[in-house]
Amino acid sequence: MPIKTVFEGKIDSMQILDKDGHADAALDPRLPTDMLGRMYRLLVLGRVWDKKSLALQRTGRMYTFPPLEGQEAICVGATLAAGPGDWLFPTYREASLVYYMRGHPSFRSNLMWMGLEDGLLLDRKIRCFPYATPIATQLPHAVGAAYALRMKGEKAACIAFCGDGATSEGDFHDALNFAGVWNAPCVFIVSNNQWAISVPRSMQTKSETLAQKALAYGIRGVQVDGNDILAVYRAVKEAADSAREGKGPVLIECVTYRMGPHTTADDPKKYRKEDELAHWRERDPIKRMQAYLKGKGAWSEEYEKKLQEEVAAFVEKTVQDAESFRPEPRDIFRFMYAKMPKDLEAQMGECFGGSSGDARMEG
Ligand SMILES: Cc1ncc(C[n+]2csc(CCOP(=O)(O)OP(=O)(O)O)c2C)c(N)n1
C-alpha cells in the first residue's frame, strides 16, 4: 500500500508588541487612543488590586488568594474583545478582573476571597459564569452553553479560560472534542503561565505547543504572546467573531508567566529559579503597553501619576466596601437549595424565628 500523508498540522504564533513596546505595523489593530487608554488602566488596575489583595491576605484580612501578576494582558485583552452577548468562563486567577470589566461590583470580588459566597452572586446580565476551583470543569460547561446559545438562535460565543495544567485534565479533552463535533461557538483561552503550582510546563506534555492540542479535535489552534495585549485582543476578537458566524471553535494558547506564587499558600522560591523570573520581568505586559503608548505620545509621567492615584483610590474604596459588608446569617440556609426543604426551614426558624422564603439565587 503506498504511503500517503493524511494529515498535516501547523500552528501560527502571533506577536504584535515586542518586549520593548514596538508594534508590528502590519499586524497592529490601530485601536483608537481611548481604547488603548482603557486597556492600560485595566492592566494597571489589575496589578494594583492584586498587590493590595496580597497585602490583605498577608495581614489576615483576606483568605487564600491566587495572584494574577504578569498575566493581566490575557484577561483584559480577551474581555475587551468579547462581544456584549458573549458569555465568559474565567478561572479563579482572572475572575475578579473579568467580572469587574463586565459590571460586577468590584467589592464583591473581594468578598469572594474573604470567604463570602455573596461575592459570587453574579447578575445574569453580565454574562459570566461563577469560577470553579476544580481544574478545567468550566470547559465542558462553556461548550454546553455555547451549544445552547446556538440552539436558541443567539448569535453569541462562549469564551472559556484555563491554565496549562488544565490541558492535562480529561475535561479539557472532552470539551474540545464536543466543541469540534458540535461546531460549538466556543473560544478556549489557555493561559500558559509555565507552571501548574510547582509542576513546570515541560512536565505537562511533550507537545511543542499547547495550541496544537486543538488539531487533534479538528478545530483551529493558534498561539499568541500572552504578554502582548494587542495580540491577545486581536486573536480573541477574530476567534469570537468567527465562532459567532458558525465557523467553529478556536483554541488560543497565550504564552505568559505567573510572576507570583500559585496562591498565597505557595512559595515558588522552593521550585523555580530567580533568573527565570528576571527573564519574564523584562517581558512584563504593562511595561510594554506603557512603552507603546509613550511612542504614540499618549503616555507621560504626569498621566501615570494621576492614573496610579485614581486606581489606588478605587482599590481602597473596594476594600472598604468589602470590609464593611455584613452578610445575612440566614444565607447559611438559603444558598443551598432553590426551594428550601421543610426540615431546613424548621432549623432556620429555630435559629432566627419566622419563616424563610425561598433561596436568593433565583433566575
Ligand atoms: C481537578 C483538580 N485537580 C487538582 C486541583 C488542585 N489544583 C489547584 S490549582 C492547580 C494547578 C492548575 O494549574 P493551571 O491549570 O496551569 O492553572 P494556573 O493555576 O497556573 O493558573 C491544581 C493542580 C484542583 N483544583 N482540581
Relevant terms:
363 residues; alpha/beta; 2 domains; 6-stranded parallel beta sheet; 8 strands; globular; disordered C terminus; binds thiamine diphosphate
Structure description:
This protein is globular. The chain folds into 2 domains: 12-327, Thiamin diphosphate (ThDP)-binding fold, Pyr/PP domains (Rossmann fold), CATH 3.40.50.970; 328-363, no CATH class. It has 363 residues and is of the alpha/beta class. It has helices spanning 33-58, 72-81, 95-102, 106-112, 138-151, 170-182, 229-244, 274-281, 285-295, 301-323, 331-334, 342-352; strands at residues 12-14, 87-89, 158-163, 186-192, 195-196, 199-200, 220-225, 250-255. The structure holds thiamine diphosphate. Thiamine diphosphate binds next to strand 3 and strand 5. Residues 91, 93, 133-135, 162-166, 193, 195-197, 258, 262 line the site of thiamine diphosphate.
Topology:
Elements: E1 12-14, H1 33-58, H2 72-81, E2 87-89, H3 95-102, H4 106-112, H5 138-151, E3 158-163, H6 170-182, E4 186-192, E5 195-196, E6 199-200, E7 220-225, H7 229-244, E8 250-255, H8 274-281, H9 285-295, H10 301-323, H11 331-334, H12 342-352
Parallel strand pairs: 1-7, 2-3, 3-4, 4-8, 7-8
Antiparallel strand pairs: 5-6
Helix pairs in contact: 1-2, 1-9, 1-10, 2-3, 2-7, 4-10, 5-6
The structure holds thiamine diphosphate.
